[in-house]
Amino acid sequence: MLTINKKRFKEHFRRKMHNLYTQSIEEANNEEILNVLCCVIKDMISRDWEGSRLYQEKAVFYFSIEFLLGRQLKSNLLNLGFEDTVRQGLKELGIDLDDIMEAEPDPALGNGGLGRLAACFLDSMASVGISGHGYGIRYKYGLFEQKFVNNSQVEVPDNWLINGAYPWETVRPNRAVLVKYEGNIEMEEDEEGNVRVIHKDYIPVMAMPYDIPIIGYRNECINTLRIWKSEVPSRDFGKLSLYARNESASYEEALKHKYYADEISQTLYPNDSNYAGKLLRLKQEYFFVSSGMQDIFRKCRRYKIKPQELPDKIAIHINDTHPALCIPEMMRILLDEEGLSWDEAWDITTKVMSYTNHTILSEALERWSEDIMKELLPRMYMIIAEINSRYVDYLRGKGYSEEKVKRMAIMYDGEIRMANLCIVASYSVNGVAKLHTKLLEEEVLKDFYDEEPYKFNNKTNGIAHRRWLISSNPELSNLITELIGNKWIKDTRNLKKLEKFVDDEKVLNRLEKIKFNNKVKLAKYIEETKGIKINPNSIFDVQVKRLHAYKRQLMNVLHILYLYHEILDSEDMEIDMEPRTFIFGAKAAPGYYLAKCIIKLINCVADLVNNDPRVKDKIKVVFIENYGVSLAEKIIPAANVSEQISTTTKEASGTSNMKFMMNGALTLATLDGANVEICEQVGKENMFLFGLSAKQVLDYNKYGGYSAKDLYHSNKSLARVVDDLVNGFIPGLGKEGREIYDALITYNDEYFVLRDIDEYEEAQQRISKIYKDKLKWNKMSLINIANSGIFSSDRTINEYIEDIWFRGCDENVQNNII
Ligand code: 26Q
Fold first, then answer.
1. How far apart are the C-alpha atoms of 34 and 601, rounded to whole Å?
2. Is the pLDDT of residue 716 over 60?
3. Best of 111, 317, 658 to mutate for ligand 1, by most ligand atoms within 8 A of CB?
4. Which of 545, 559, 620, 755 is catalytic?
5. Which end of the chain is more exposed for a tag (fewer CB within 10 A), N or C?
6. With bands split at pLDDT 50, 70 and 90, how would you rate the model's confidence at 780?
7. What percentage of the chain carries pLDDT values higher than 70?
8. Nearest residue (CA) to ligand 1, atom 2
9. Does residue 659 have an active-site annotation?
C-alpha cells in the first residue's frame, strides 16, 4: 500500500514548487499550486503506474469517443487515502485544499450519460483491480460552456487547457503513432509471390498520446486513460515531413496539411442523440481507433504476444458504434502487417471485440456513406465491404428472404450501418438496462437476436459510488459508516444493512438534517450565482440531464404552469401545497432548435413565477446554467425529488436516476430504462410511478391511435397551459412558444407529453402529500439509500468481467482479479 508522510510531503511540495516555477509557495497562485500538487502526486504513484502488471494477465481496452471525467484531485486523494495528510500538510504551508480543488478544471470531454459512464467504468476497473485502460480523444475544446442571454442558451467555447496543459496528464512523444487518411490502396507482389497491400499517397497525421492515471481505491492498481492529440507529423518523425504527400509541395500546402491535422482533435461534437454524417466526425473516429489499435499491437509485439494468443490476452470494448472501426482496423493490422489469412484474422478479431449499444433512437444510429468511407479511409472501406459480402453470402446461404438479408446487411443502399458491423464482429452485444436489452432483442435488433441469441446480454449501468456518494456527500457517507461500519465502501451491497434503521427516528432525523444541510449549501450557490433566494425547507424537485424532447423537460415545465394557474385561481391565492423549488440543469445541442426553445420557455416561466408576489414563494423555478459533472456533485446530494420522466422505451438506462437514489432522493418516474431496476429494488411503494407502459408506447407507434388534438380539446386545464405557449401569457416568450405548440399539437406530440401529464400531476400530488409526513418521507429515503448498492459501477464492471471480457478464461486469471 502506498503511504504518505506529512513531513516528506511538505518537503517534496516545496522542492517541486521551486523546480517548476523558481518561486516560493507564498508567491504561487492557485493554478500553480494545483499543478505542483498534481506533480507531487504523480511522482508518488509513478512506481505503481502501469508497471510490469500489464500483460501478465488479460488486459481490457475500453474505446470511447467520450470520457467525462470530472475533476480528479478529490477522487484521487480519496482513492489513495491521502486526503487528510495532504489537507493538513497544505494547511501548514498556508494553503486551503478546498480552494485548490475549486481551481481544478473539469474536463468536459463528453456530452452526457455515455461519456460519464465511461469515466465511472475506468474508476471501477481500477478499483476492482483489473488491467483496464481507456482510449479516447484529447479534445482541445470540450463540451461548450452554456450561458443564458435573454433567457436563451448561448454557447461559449470550453477552453479547459490552461496554458495548453492539464495538470494530470503526461505526454508520451515516444509513443506517438501515424494515422493515414485518403490516398490509394495498391497490391504488390514480392519475389516470393506474396501479395502485399500498400497504402500510397495518404495524408499522414500524427497522434500524440497524453496519459492520465486512473487510480484504484486503496489497491495499488493504477491504470491509464490514453487520449490522443492530432498533430502534423514532425520532421523527425520517420521519413515524413510537412511536405509528406509531395516533396515539392508548396508552403501553402504544408499549412493546409497542418490545419487538416489540427482540426481532428480540435473539438468535441456537442450532439448526443442525432446522427449527422459529418466527415470530420469520421476522421475523429478513425483517429483514436487507429492510434489505439496500433498502440495495442506495439505493446503486444514488445511482450512477444503472437496474434493467435490475443483472445487470451486482450479484450477490446466498443462503447457505442463510434469506435466501430476497431474491427476493420484490427483486420487491417492482422492482414497487412502480420500477414495472416482472412479466416485467421477474422477468427481472432471476433474473439476480441465486444460492443455496447446505448440507444434505440433510430435517428441516433450511425450510418456512413460508402462514398465518404471510400474516399477518406480506402483500406477500411475494402475490409468492411469484404466483411459485408461474406456476411450477405452467409445469410443467403441460410435461405433468408431478400427482405431479411437487406435488413441485416452491413452495407445497403450506399450506406454502412455501424451497429450491424459491430454485432456481426463482436462476441458480445449488450444493452444498458433490462428493458433496453429486451427492446433490442425483441424489436430493434430482432433479426440479429434470432440469428445469434447467445451474443446478447444485459449489463445494467452503474455509477462510481466513490465519486457520487463518498466524495460528493461526505456527511451522508459518514453517517452510513457510523451506522453499519465501513464494509459498504468496498462492497456496496452492505448498504442493505441500513434497513434495520427504518424505524429509528433518531437516524431518520439525522438523515433529514444532512439533506437539509446539503440544500442550504446549494441554496447558497444559487443565490450567489443567480441571485435567486430559495427556501431550503421547500421540496427540491430536480431534473438535470441533457435537454431532449424524449426526456420531457417540457412536461415538467407545463406542470409548473399548471400549478401557477392553480395558485392564481384559488381563493385568496392560498392553496394547500408544500412549497417547491423546481431545479433544472440541461444543455441543448447547439443545432437542436426545439430543445433551445424549451430552455427559453423554462427560463421565461421561471421569471414569471419567481417575480409574481401572488405566488408567495410557494413555487420557485431555477435553471442552473452550465450543468456538468462538477455541478452535479453539488446538486444531486441536495435533491428531494429525482425527475426521471422520459417517454417509456426511449431512455436506454439513465444514470443520474441511480446517483439521486444513492443520495436519498425519491424517484418520480416512468417505468423506463433503469427505473425498472430501481423499482425492483425499492418496490413501487417507495417511488412515484406514472405514465404509459412500454407496450402502450410500442402499440401507439405501431398501430397509431394517438391524437394530441383530441386530448387538447377534451381537457380544459391542459388546453390552458398549452395555449399559454402562444397567447402572450408568458412574457419574453416569442416564436419559441409557437415552435413548441406545433410540436405538441400540429405534429401530434411525438413523445406523449399530453398523454402522460395528468398522471404526472397526480404523482406530483402524492409527493406533496407524503412530504408533509416527514417521518414517512425519511423512511422512504432511507430505503432508497439502503437498496442503491447494486447500482455501483463496481457491480457492473464485475459483470462485464465475468460474462464478457474474461468469460471462459483460465480460472486462475479470473480468481486473481475478482
Ligand atoms: C454520434 C454521431 C455523431 C455525433 C455524435 C454522436 C453521439 C454522441 C454522444 C451520439 C450519442 C452520444 C451519447 C449518447 C448517450 O449519452 N446515451 C446515453 O447513454 C447512457 C449510458 O448508457 C444511458 O444511461 C442513457 O440512457 C443514454 O441516453
1. 40
2. yes
3. 111
4. 545
5. N
6. very high
7. 96
8. 275
9. yes
Ligand 1 cavity residues, CB under 6 Å:
111-114, 117, 269, 271-273, 275, 281, 358-359, 364, 366, 432, 461, 651-655, 673
pLDDT at 243: 47
Residue type, 55: Y
- pLDDT exceeds 70 at position 604: yes
Beta strands in 321-431 (DSSP E): 353-356, 367-369, 411-412, 415-417, 428-431
Q: Is residue 204 exposed (0-12), middle (13-18) or buried (19+ Cβ within 10 Å)? A: buried
Per the DSSP assignment, residues forming a β-bridge with 142 are: 158
Q: How many CB atoms lie within 10 A of CB 160?
A: 17
Cell readout for 397 is 446461404
Question: Rounded CA gap, 333 and 348, in Å?
Answer: 12
- Told to judge if 436 belongs to the known catalytic residues of this protein, a careful annotator would answer no
Give the closest residue (by CA) to ligand 1 atom 24.
Answer: 654
Ligand 1, pocket-test mutation among 67, 273, 648, most atoms within 8 A of CB: 273
564: its cell numbers: 401557477
Query: Mutation test of ligand 1: which of 121, 283, 318, 359 has the most ligand atoms closer than 8 Å to its C-beta?
Result: 359
Cell 508567491 -> residue:
27
- Ligand 1 nearest-atom number relative to CA 278: 3
Length of the chain: 818
Question: If you average pLDDT over residues 145-162, what whole number do you get?
Answer: 97
| Amino acid found at 360 | I
Instruction: Give the model's pLDDT for residue 240.
Output: 47
Q: How many helices (H) and strands (E) does the chain have?
A: 34, 23
- What pTM value is reported for the model? 0.97
Helix, strand, or coil (residue 622): strand
If DSSP codes are grouped into helix, strand and coil, which group holds residue 811?
helix
Query: 143: closest CA among 167, 159, 163, 121?
Result: 159
Q: How far is the CA of 652 from the centre of ligand 1 (A)?
A: 9
Q: For 79-90, what is the mean pLDDT?
A: 97
Least confident of 50-64, 200-214, 618-632, 792-806: 50-64
Over residues 94-119, mean pLDDT: 98
Confidence of residue 162 (pLDDT cuts 50, 70, 90): confident
In this prediction, residues 542-556 reach a mean pLDDT of 98
pLDDT tens digits, 72-83? 999 999 999 999
Question: What's the CA-to-centroid distance between 514 and ligand 1, angstroms?
Answer: 34
Show Cβ contacts of residue 442 under 8 Å, excluding neighbours closer than 6 positions: 449
End-to-end CA distance of the chain: 19
Instruction: Specify the ligand 1 atom closest to the Cα of 116.
Output: 21
pLDDT band at residue 53 using 50, 70 and 90 as cut-offs: low
User: What is the pLDDT at residue 239?
Assistant: 44
Report pLDDT digits (tens) over 563-590: 999 999 987 766 778 999 999 999 999 9
Q: Which of 358, 367, 559, 779 is catalytic?
A: 358
747/749 Cα distance (integer angstroms) = 6
Cβ neighbours of 150 (radius 10 Å): 9
CA of 273 to the centre of ligand 1 (A): 6
3-state SS class at 278: coil
Q: How far is CA 158 from the centre of its chain?
A: 17
User: For this structure, is 545 an active site residue?
Assistant: yes
Question: Predicted confidence band at 818 (pLDDT cuts at 50, 70, 90)?
Answer: very low
Residue 677 Cα to chain centre, angstroms: 19
285 CA → ligand 1 middle, Å: 15
Place 815 in a pLDDT band, splitting at 50, 70 and 90.
very low
Testing ligand 1's pocket by substitution, the residue of 116, 143, 272, 356 carrying the most ligand atoms inside 8 A of its CB is 272
How far, in Å, from the CA of 466 to the mean position of ligand 1? 23
Distance CA 171, CA 553 (A): 42
| Longest Cα–Cα distance in the chain | 97
Q: Which of 176, 329, 287, 300 is nearest to 238 (CA)?
A: 176
Per the listing, cell 460519464 goes with 116
